[in-house]
């Protein structure tokens, strides 16, 4: 007892206060989710204590049976949710229920500000589920006592800016939440309603949820049931609860593995991108259990990074119960589980990709960029990952696999061609593609930033090397494409560019590495490429943007010998006195700038570019 201490009053942290205003004032139709959130907190509290008791068994002495109990009192108009989990002490209460806003608070408010203003059902996903109690209650009382500690505390609030904490009585560890229901929330005092809500949302909870001496839920961990006995709805609910997610699982992988290390996995691939997918601070989301006892959620060693979109549970009876998180990272048994899971997930994805390619597209749009990280990080399964990769290409609107690409190779085509850039629409219109398009030679269009990196590591697929079309010579001549054979006479027609090339080189000096006739252009007059052996254009741009590279390598300017501008310039350059031809000089710079612009860059000297452009226009008009 804490009878010497008195009642303290605190203000909610500003964002929490705003959140409460919205929650309490909402006319939300799906208010029943408050019960899901409170039962879920009770279940988390039991999980936490069971885990803590692994190292400190005295915490649960004399009270080993975890349970959650519900009650309604129609007269008093209260709903009660009680658990014998870990409980909270004074400081826990202060921190978790009021004065410190979790990072999710702001994110949730932002989310509410967007789109469907009424969708409060996401509240749990943002780690602020407790406050959903105020959707149905005008005031809430939390009496709680932390396992292993003496004192108990009463937290209470009407959700209007302030809350109080005072000493209380509670004989046993755990937490009791009492909701004083609002006038318009009477429906939740009905027994049938409570039963229905718990069945709908909380059936998968691994502890018994008791109501009037009856256990409402199955109370067996869902992953321990035979896969065929778990319905899609049950999976969805479990996924929502355990992953704090609100979408449907796109794929469910539930199976048991027997072997040197035996385990059960129940993994979900979300159908939309989780918010923290690219957050470097993100935590692991697949929960590790040992013999049904929750060990940790922050299991970096359990799955490779490129599968970080997975949610769910892995339970193994072969890991040691009191294994520490640090030891986990290096545990050979865990490494076995990791490699088994990795292969399993890849093979399930492959099945989906083959059986239902349209559906696979939605997965790939969400997680393709992440999966491709595995090409660099997980060398052991690189080939398997390549098989499940999909790409946009010049072949058509549908995504293609590398195998399909290889099956479409033209005669004498030796390489898998690609172009990389940060903007899919931009690269699809790149001049570099012209010659390939004309010949019907397919080019992969890579627009994820990770593409540049795996391309540095993965050199080939099916014996065919990857080759960037913005670097080195375009070896298009050798390939037998669709294009009607270019007659020899046409080629004879092509002017000798030597004079023009010499003039441009002289004028541009160090701005370019070289000037050459092009094989890859059919419509544009010019393009820039990286010389064989130099860094590819897009990679250089990427490194510059991330501050990892200063300055750049001069590029090779390629001229399209068939373009009328180039033809005219050839004539001019071959005239006597071309060395002092101001227009020719301006044209050299304008061609270079034009090529830069086509690559999405700016002219090297915008002011000079403007001056030259005006001057050329003046002469033309
Ligand atoms: P989340 O459950 O995602 O952490 P909530 O808003 O639902 O977010 O709960 C906030 C915190 O309050 C919990 O993380 C937990 O520390 C504490 N809490 C809530 N309910 C209980 C409970 N029944 N027993 C112990 N702690 C609880
Ligand atoms: Mg919660």
- What ligand molecules are bound, each kind once? adenosine-5'-diphosphate, magnesium ion
Number of helical segments?
20
CATH superfamily of the largest domain: Histidine kinase-like ATPase, C-terminal domain
CATH topology of the largest domain: Heat Shock Protein 90
Q: What separation lies between the terminal Cα atoms?
A: 95 Å
Shape: elongated
Most strands sheet: 9 strands, mixed
Structural class: alpha+beta
Task: Give the amount of beta strand, in percent.
Answer: 15-25%
**Tally of DSSP β-strands:** 23
Query: What is the CATH C-level name of the largest domain?
Result: Alpha Beta
CA-atom Rg in angstroms: 33 Å
Number of domains: 3
Arithmetic mean pLDDT: 90
Helix content percent band: 25-40%
Q: How are strands sequenced across the largest beta sheet?
A: 1-6-5-4-7-3-2-8-9
What CATH architecture of the largest domain do you see?
2-Layer Sandwich
Describe this structure in words.
It contains 20 helices and 23 strands. It has about 625 residues and is of the alpha+beta class. The strands form four sheets. It has a nine-stranded mixed beta sheet. Strands 16-15-18-17-20-19 form a six-stranded mixed beta sheet. Helix 16 (about 500-510) crosses helix 18 (about 565-575). It is elongated. The chain folds into three domains: about 10-220, Histidine kinase-like ATPase, C-terminal domain (Heat Shock Protein 90, 2-Layer Sandwich), CATH 3.30.565; about 225-355, Ribosomal Protein S5, domain 2; about 490-620, Up-down Bundle (Four Helix Bundle (Hemerythrin (Met), subunit A)). The model has no long low-confidence stretch (mean pLDDT about 90). The site of adenosine-5'-diphosphate (ADP) has 17 residues, from helix 2 and helix 3.
């Amino acid at each position: 007892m804490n009878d010497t201490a008195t009642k303290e009053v605190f203000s909610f942290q500003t964002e929490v206060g705003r959140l409460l205003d919205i929650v309490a004032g909402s006319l939300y139709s799906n208010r029943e989710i408050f019960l899901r959130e409170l039962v879920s907190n009770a279940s988390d509290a039991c999980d936490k204590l069971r885990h803590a008791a692994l190292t400190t068994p005295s915490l649960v002495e004399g009270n080993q049976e975890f349970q959650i109990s519900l009650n309604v009192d129609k007269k008093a108009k209260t709903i009660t949710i009680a658990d014998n989990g870990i409980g909270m002490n004074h400081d826990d209460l202060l921190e978790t229920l009021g004065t410190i806003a979790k990072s999710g608070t702001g994110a949730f408010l932002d989310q509410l500000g967007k789109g469907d203003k009424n969708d409060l059902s996401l509240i749990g996903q943002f780690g602020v589920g407790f406050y959903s109690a105020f959707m149905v209650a005008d005031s809430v009382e939390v009496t709680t006592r932390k396992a292993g500690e003496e004192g108990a505390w009463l937290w209470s609030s009407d959700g209007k800016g302030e809350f109080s904490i005072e000493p209380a009585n509670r004989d046993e560890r755990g937490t009791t939440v009492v909701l004083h229901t609002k006038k318009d929330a009477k429906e939740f005092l009905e027994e049938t309603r409570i039963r229905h809500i718990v069945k709908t949302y909380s059936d998968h909870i691994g502890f018994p949820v008791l109501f009037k001496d009856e256990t409402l839920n199955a109370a067996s961990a869902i992953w321990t049931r035979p896969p065929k006995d778990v319905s899609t709805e049950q999976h969805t609910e479990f996924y929502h609860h355990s992953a704090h997610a609100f979408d449907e699982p796109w794929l469910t992988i539930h199976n048991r593995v027997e072997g040197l290390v035996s385990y059960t996995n129940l993994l979900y691939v979300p159908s939309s991108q989780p918010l923290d997918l690219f957050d470097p601070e993100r935590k692991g989301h697949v929960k590790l259990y040992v013999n049904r006892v929750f060990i940790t959620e922050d299991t970096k060693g359990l799955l490779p990074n490129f599968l970080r979109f997975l949610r769910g549970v892995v339970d193994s009876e072969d890991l040691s119960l009191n294994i520490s998180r640090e030891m986990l990272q290096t545990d050979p048994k865990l490494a076995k589980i990791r490699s088994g899971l990795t292969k399993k997930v890849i093979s399930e994805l492959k099945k989906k990709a083959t059986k239902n390619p349209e559906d696979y597209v939605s997965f790939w749009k969400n997680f393709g960029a992440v999966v491709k990280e595995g090409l660099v990080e997980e060398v052991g399964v690189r080939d398997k990952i390549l098989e499940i990769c999909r790409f946009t290409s010049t072949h058509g609107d549908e995504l293609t696999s590398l195998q399909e690409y290889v099956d479409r190779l033209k005669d004498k085509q030796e390489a898998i061609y690609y172009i990389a850039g940060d903007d899919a629409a931009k690269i699809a219109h790149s001049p570099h593609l012209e010659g390939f398009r004309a010949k019907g030679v397919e080019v992969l269009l890579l627009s994820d930033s990770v593409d540049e990196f795996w391309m540095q590591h993965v050199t080939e697929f099916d014996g065919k090397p990857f080759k960037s079309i913005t670097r080195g010579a375009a070896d298009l001549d050798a390939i037998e494409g669709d294009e009607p054979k270019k007659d020899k006479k046409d080629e004879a027609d092509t002017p000798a560019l030597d004079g023009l090339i010499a003039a441009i080189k002289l004028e541009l000096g160090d701005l370019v590495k070289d000037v050459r006739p092009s094989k890859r252009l059919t419509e544009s007059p010019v393009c820039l490429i990286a010389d064989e052996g130099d860094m590819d254009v897009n990679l250089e741009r990427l490194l510059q943007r991330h501050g990892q590279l200063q300055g750049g390598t001069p590029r090779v300017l390629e001229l399209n010998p068939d373009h009328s501008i180039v033809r005219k310039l050839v004539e001019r350059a071959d005239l006597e006195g071309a060395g002092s031809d101001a227009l020719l000089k301006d044209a050299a710079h304008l061609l270079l700038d034009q090529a830069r612009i086509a690559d999405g860059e700016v002219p090297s000297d915008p002011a000079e570019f403007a001056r030259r452009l005006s001057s050329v226009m003046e002469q033309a008009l």
